[in-house]
């Protein structure tokens, strides 16, 4: 039976880091190459706080990197963290799981330590963490990072998690029965995503209109909510909404040219399989995790299980993984374009794959250190 990962305190402790306290953002009012001089100017920046805003508890300024899978979000985050006093929050709904490293493209243990990561290895594969639970953790991490004089940098692997952090989330009036979730997952496998999406259009047309990418997890979530609580999720979002704490946000969105992105996806897919995706999946199954677990039906792991069960040749599995990833990236493009039209925060769009951090460093530093 799938249980829920809700031990927020334990999760926070598992991801706590002994990151050194920087003297502050120290980048005001404009970017200078001498980082020592920049750090010394943080005290000048916070001296401009308005009277009703505590210097000891300022409204956090948060950076967010978004983009389709394999667009270079993690690489950009690391390069920015080399230049600025940042700590990274991974908002990836698969990187929260222990033991799923290769197939989720987790940063290495050395990188997690160096860049003071939060949000990784919070749950076991047979547990679940809602976007709301993750958002609560993220809000705590943001406050802790700011208290150390650093800036939070959210790397958005999951649009649902990022949205919950920035816009709030809907709490459930009670728990969804595991049997209902299992039945809907089975229907997804037998009837397909389009059939369940058509059902959602009838039950909750307002929500279905926002799910144009037809993300199967979001469709399942909406149907679970409807059948579990007897009301549309779109209605519950108005009734049971938890607003986020105050924060100022700058969103950096990567939109690489599609041909180059698809080539990158193909290369990364082959690298994952060569790095031991099959062996990693075998270890999970041998540890007793059922292949029907939602996280093991996701891209890469489903194909690896098919290889292990003799249902798919290795080369076909690799190609199917790449194909599913390309389709997923296409849906992410659609979602990000739509989300950007309604985002209340500042946005930087980077069209070129591999844009240098120097292109955006000045904008970021001005954002972090502008007078309040």
Explain what the structure shows.
The protein has 372 residues and is α/β, with parallel strands linked by helices. It has three domains: 7-12 and 24-167 and 249-257 and 344-369, 3-Layer(aba) Sandwich (Rossmann fold), CATH 3.40.50.300; 178-239, Orthogonal Bundle (Histone, subunit A); 259-329, Crystal structure of tRNA isopentenylpyrophosphate transferase (bh2366) domain (Helix Hairpins, Orthogonal Bundle), CATH 1.10.287.890. It contains 17 helices and nine strands. The protein has helices spanning 8-14, 35-40, 42-46, 73-83, 109-114, 131-147, 159-167, 178-191, 193-203, 205-210, 216-229, 233-239, 258-274, 277-286, 301-308, 314-342, 358-369; strands spanning 3-4, 61-66, 86-90, 127-128, 151-155, 169-170, 241-242, 248-254, 346-350. Helix 8 (178-191) packs across helix 11 (216-229), helix 14 packs across helix 15 and helix 15 runs antiparallel to helix 16. The chain is globular, with a radius of gyration of 21 Å. It starts with a strand and ends with a helix. Mean pLDDT is 82; it is low at 7-55.
């Amino acid at each position: 039976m799938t249980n829920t990962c809700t031990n927020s305190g334990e999760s926070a402790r598992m991801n706590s880091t002994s990151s050194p306290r920087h003297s502050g953002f120290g980048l005001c009012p404009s970017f200078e190459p001498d980082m020592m001089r920049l750090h010394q100017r943080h005290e000048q920046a916070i001296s401009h706080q308005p009277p009703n805003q505590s210097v000891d508890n300022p409204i956090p300024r948060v950076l967010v990197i978004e983009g389709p899978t394999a667009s270079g979000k993690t690489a950009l985050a690391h390069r920015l963290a080399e230049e600025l006093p940042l700590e990274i929050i991974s908002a990836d709904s698969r990187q929260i799981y222990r033991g799923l490293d290769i197939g989720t493209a987790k940063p290495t243990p050395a990188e997690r330590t160096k860049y003071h990561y939060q949000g990784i290895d919070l749950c076991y594969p047979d547990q679940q963490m809602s976007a709301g639970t993750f958002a609560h953790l993220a809000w705590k991490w943001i406050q802790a990072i700011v208290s150390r004089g650093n800036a939070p940098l959210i790397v958005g692997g999951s649009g649902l998690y990022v949205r919950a952090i920035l816009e709030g989330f809907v709490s459930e009036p009670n728990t969804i029965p595991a049997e209902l979730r299992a039945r809907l997952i089975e229907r997804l496998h037998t009837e397909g995503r389009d059939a369940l999406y058509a059902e959602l259009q009838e039950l909750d047309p307002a929500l279905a209109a926002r799910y144009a990418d037809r993300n199967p997890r979001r469709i399942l979530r909406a149907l679970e909510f409807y059948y579990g609580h007897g009301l549309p999720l779109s209605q519950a979002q108005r009734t049971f909404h938890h607003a986020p704490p105050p924060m100022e946000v700058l969103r950096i969105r990567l939109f690489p040219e599609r041909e180059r992105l698809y080539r990158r996806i193909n290369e990364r897919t082959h690298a994952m399989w060569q790095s031991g995706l099959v062996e990693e999946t075998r270890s999970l199954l041998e540890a007793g995790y059922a292949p029907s677990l939602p996280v093991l039906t996701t891209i890469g792991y489903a194909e690896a299980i098919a290889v292990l069960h003799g249902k798919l040749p290795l080369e076909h599995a690799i190609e199917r993984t790449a194909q599913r990833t390309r389709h997923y990236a296409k849906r992410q493009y659609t979602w990000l374009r739509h989300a950007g039209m309604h985002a209340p925060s500042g946005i930087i769009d980077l069209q070129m794959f591999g844009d240098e951090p120097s292109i955006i460093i000045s904008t970021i530093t001005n954002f972090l250190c502008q007078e309040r």
